[in-house]
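Model it.
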Amino acid sequence: MGIKIDEVSALLKREIEDFDLEAKLESEGTVMQVGDSIARVYGLDSCVAGELLEFSNGARGIAMNLEEGNVGCVLLGSDSGIREGASVRGTGRVAEVPVGRAMLGRVVDPLGRLLDGGAPIQAEGYRPIESPAPGVLARKGVSVPLQTGILSIDSMVPIGRGQRELIIGDRQTGKTAIAVDAILNQRDSGVICIYVAIGQKASSTAAIIDKLTKRGAMEYCVVMSSSASDSATLQYLAPYAACSIAEYFMYTLHKDVLVVYDDLSKHAIAYRALSLLLRRPPGREAFPGDVFY
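Modeled.
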């Protein structure tokens, strides 16, 4: 079979036209030390705080400490496949969580991965896990009440939409019950609810999900779970990821959102563990100084 010169020349011309000589600049470093879900990376000179890093085995982490000679990175998964000397690539992106209307009625982890075994979520977009809060001038005054459904609270300690409220008390005094009752009472109010379980037993979270499901509250509720068996990194990220999902409903759908963090004491403990492993200066009771802020 003879070679057709016209076809070969046309093919070569098409390949030359489609040839892309664009240079891609990537930041790459090397793992100096790894252990306890913490990695120290050398060579990422252009890394920024909060940047998503990708390891050679596909694992990912978030840059938290930017030091003179290395970068302290918290891992988003197991560190079992990462060794000293492995290469690390900076992605140029910050950690993000998927958002969208499809999140309603689902149980997810702080990275947006499904925990309820249902159909995959069709995300409408992504929001950074940590983003700047609006300034004082951009905020509207608290003027609309949020009814918890508990008469003694609504009459004596009125709570407004746009306000933070701390529920504090000893063990087994009903703190979670108050929060769950407040979620159940938002059924016909148009308020979207996000329940964030931080460092809780998986059985306790499952019992709350069962209660919300039986009372028909899951249709306007998102449950984010980071159980006690999860890494300190996921427990640390849980409240930030939940707030990002809430901000999507606020900014995009213009909805009021009730976010319940249960509880922030365990979040502080997870943050303390990460901070001590990253060699940050400890403050009172070994907590980092900014946890009190």
